[in-house]
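Table S5 (text form). Sequence records supplied for joint modeling of the two-component complex.
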Amino acid sequence: MSRSFLSSPSPAGAALPAAPTLPPARGRARVRRVAYQVLVQALLLSFSALFLFPFLWMLSTALKTPQEMFAAVMRLIPRDPQWGNFIRVFSAIPFLRYTLNTAIITFGTMAGVLLSSSLVAYSFARLRWPGRNLLFVVLLSTLMLPGQVILIPTFILFSNLGWLDSFAPLVVPAFFGGGAFNIFLLRQFYRTIPFDLTESARIDGCREIHIYARIILPLCKPILATIALFTFMGCWNDFFGPLIFLTNPDLTTLALGLRAFQQQHTAQWDLMMAGALISALPTLVLFFSFQRYFVEGITLTGIKG
Amino acid sequence: MNPVRSSRSSRSAPLARFSAPALVLLLLLALALPPAVTGCGGGEPTAAGDVTFTYWSIFPVGDPAESVHNTMMRTFEDQNPGVTVEHVGTSFWDYWTKLQTAQAGNQGPDLFIQDICNVKGRAKDGVSANLEAYLKADKIRKDDYLASDIESCTWNDELYAMPFSTDARYLFWNKAHFEAAGLDPETPPKTLAELESFADQLTKYSEDGKTLEQVGFHPRLGNNIFVQMVWSQGGEFFDQDMNPTINTDKNIEVIEWWVRMVNKYPVRAFNAFSTQASAAAVSPFIQGKVSLLIDNNELAWKIKDLAPDLRFGVTAVPYDGEENRTAWSGGFTLEISAAADKAKQDAAWKFIRYMTGPEVQSNLTETLRWLPCLVDSLDALKEGADANELAIIEESKYRRHFDYVEASPQWWGYVDPQISKLEQGELTSARKAMDLAQAELLRQIENYRKTSGQE
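The corresponding structure-token record, covering 760 residues in total, follows.
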């Protein structure tokens, strides 16, 4: 007959071993470690709550009625949550059309940035040609140019090209360099890859484009993911570019379209917050999906806040 | 050792290692994109003689006023066959940046809404078209509009903009607060001294004296500016030749009153009060936290929406003598681009005539909640109006816009920082503060004269 081992008696006469007693010094050290951990976790939780609060307030506002929003006593949890605001925002503005426009611009720009900045950075980091360093300094100096200074000249340039009121001014420039900051990030990353690796490939007769595409790029996933994420966030939330270059209402983007809820003297805060929450979702999903690469990319290039 | 440096091949012609087809492919990809992404524009061809003009406004898709505005445009198109309005709306807060950038790049609209306060600058710079010929041809009388509006739209005695809508500043008072403080709820303050005295009686602190529960009157709350207070007391910032007169005795007297009113409230208590009030994103007057407030007519409409039971009154900002009765005002104009071709200008003018004519102007308050500029339309609002609405209509006839100074269109920006320094105790003498403002503005005007070749 089988017996449950739980009910089996301990060997006759054998007493259970007593728990080992820690020497007082080791016990104190353990207590200190635990206390330290509790303190650190409490601090981190507090900071998380602090940074989460605006997001919670946005959600709360999205669910309130205008009367509750303007009530003298402010409440975080709405009395009568207006879930319908998340539906209304789709009818108040062409939300899906705006999302599609934003997606076209964002993914077009991402493709351009990843393709061209990785190529340009490859040239700066791995190839040797006259004036390379000088040109890199010139490139970096473009980071110092304030946007206001180049706004009118760029506008006139795109106007002369006949690109105004289209996605071209927002997408095409990405295919011509992909941005000085991205090139800088990639160049720094490329330089960490041993030169022996590419030299061996050259000796074996590998073409430069194949070295770039088959050896270097696969090693650069973290930094490419980082740049992709930066570009996504920059384009998805870009307000100024679409404001200046797009005029046709059918081409409006999400960031621009949501602004319609804010008028001169009033604002439809409920709809604006509902729309802002929905439009923030892709960024959040992307961030959490690529968080590992993102952190790795930042760490490896030494770009830290 | 850097292998690239040691490599003979890379030293010679590294780019040659890229295959030519790969480079061509990349180039084509980049160049092929423009048509793909620019192919979104284009419009329907129009019949011969038909005119389409572009019109930019502050009513984007999603703005509750957009449908009203669209109705106006469609009605106009029905009344003017062959004329099409191609409308682009942008949020008020971003409209100005978009418009100015587009106009700087010569890509602005044919017709646009603009701010009435700086028409003269656009007329001088050749941005807006001269409308005199249209006015004469259509026998439009400038007298049908308020003289101050027409004056703001005039440059070298000729009209460059048509006043479309306006606002004005008023003193709002909470009648329940008056009753609670033992004041007559039907008698608002008429002078600055009364305003100060009433404010003192209406202000309430918590029992421990640290928290402001009710503000009697604070000049920085609402939609107010020191210029309004100075004008209402007979002060002026410029003489008839537009020379600055910031540091006159009268101006200093009013600024001293302003600073005294601000300093009645402890900084910490007032900051806490205003932070809490602004967090609610609605006027503290509507929240019942302020007893007397200077604001524009929009506040009256908002009260109707958000606090219909609030008992309040509207009156003129306290003034010293009938000749100084003033309501500081802004407003929008409609202007035609000087760069537009004649056919579009003509069509745009037809639209202006419609928008500034009795049909639209008489309904402007009901539809867009703006005050009309056409005097007859303003007077027509009196029918069935309550006491507050009557006061809004009556006081709006005392409107005055900021003086236009070519060398410094935003001249008040030289005075306000000095007043802030007085409020914060960085300066203690109003005379010294106004002397500094006067000196800075004179310096700016002098610089402008030198740089613009006027010297």
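Note: The first helix of chain A runs from residue 24 to 62.
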